[in-house]
Amino acid sequence: MRAENRNTPAAYRNATDTTNTARVQWRKFFTDTNLVALIDTALADNQELNITKQEIEIARNEIRTRKGEYLPSGSIQLGAGPDKSGKYTWDGQAEEQWKEPQGKPKYIGDFMVGIGFSWELDIWKKLRNAKNAAVARYLASIEGKNFMVTNLVAEIASSYYELLALDNQLNIVRQNIEIQQNALAIVRLQKESARVTQLAVNRFEAQLLNTQNRQYEIQQQITETENRINFLTGRFAAPIARNSGSFNTTVFDSISTGVPGQLLENRPDIRQAEQELTAAKLDVKVAKANFFPSFRISASAGFQAFNPAVWFNPSSLLYSVAADMLAPLINRNALVAVYKTSRAKQMQAILGFEKTTIQAYNEVQNQLAGIENYSNSYTTKKTEADILTQSVSISDNLFKSARADYIEVLLTQREALDSRIELVEIKKKQLNAEINMYKALGGGWK
């Protein structure tokens, strides 16, 4: 069985930071008070997270169960009941000596009180390894909870900024509706003065209707996004407090990636895979120990008598001490199957650990590229949007003075609207790239 590969690249491409943003607490990374309040609510009330916390409690109880298996077990025994043997048995003949004159036994019963102990000697560390495997799975469940916290924090943040983006897009659409309504009114006046035809009026009116229809789609997206946030926070539909005007000026502190080797320490999913691998290795040791004999010591002591009056008489004392050895013979095929299964699961855990590590590294690389590319894209698109917004006024003035065709006005208005909507979309992607980078580095759970 080969060992897992823990080697990682020396550095990320185009990044040479030694500090790591993953160590920044989420309250300091996200500064929007409304967003912080939503995350606080989610961490307390999210049902999926609370279900995971119960799984941690189940894993903790499994440790107690495994620990009890290699410790001595004791019990108290107390019994009483009738006991009449047949006359023509050895016990029945003994009873004949205790008969009363009327011919009936004087005592019919059996009374017993005692204590018993049993202890399996864990010579091959089978029970101890089983307990340690349970501990590793408990630690894995904690890391699983931490990974869920990381994802929950990132998902709420992404949904929150998506909501702000939709608010801004809806505001842009409504501003364009007002502009197009004014343009339509002007075109109708020009038709009355025979400067344009009904075709121009229809084209302007159709574009206005198209823009008005666009706002309903955005309103539906806003509703769905609000309800997604409400679900993540564990509550029914409720208004989401937010400051949409701050969207375009929102910036996060510069992100430092550190070195790839820090992912093994900061990413909860990698730490979870590591604990699951530890548990799988211990399971192999337990399965191997099943081939060896097991030894058990048992002892008991107490008092037993047919008459309660002589229950605690020294002559009623009984005790026993025994040592047992159990070695598997016939069922070795089943033990071999269990052992091979445990080794296959260990290989799965090794591959899972390596897969998680590679995936984490690639996620960081993707978000690094995303932050750079969306930042450059935002700068370019903002310049385009400013130019087209300015062109709307220019085209309107030229159209009024009959120096531009109405088609140019329509195209300019549509291009200006699309560019402003796209600018908001790029800003959202830029913020998401930074949020996802924070998550990819392993931030958000501390």
Number of helices: 10
The tally of beta strands, per DSSP, is 4
- Terminal CA distance reads 35 Å
Specify the CATH class of the largest domain. Mainly Alpha
Can you walk through the features of this model?
There is one protein chain. This protein is of the alpha+beta class. The protein has ten helices and four strands; from the N terminus they run H-H-H-E-H-E-H-H-H-H-E-E-H-H. The longest helix is centred in the C-terminal third of the chain and has 69 residues, at 332-400. The two termini are 35 Å apart.
Give the structure's gist in a few sentences:
The protein is α+β, with helices and mostly antiparallel strands.
Q: Characteristics of this structure?
A:
446 residues; alpha+beta; Outer membrane efflux proteins (OEP); 2 domains; four-stranded antiparallel β-sheet; 4 strands; elongated
Topology (elements, then pairings):
Layout: H1 26-29, H2 33-45, H3 47-69, E1 73-81, H4 90-96, E2 110-121, H5 126-192, H6 198-232, H7 263-266, H8 268-289, E3 294-305, E4 317-326, H9 332-400, H10 406-440
Antiparallel strand pairs: 1-2, 2-3, 3-4
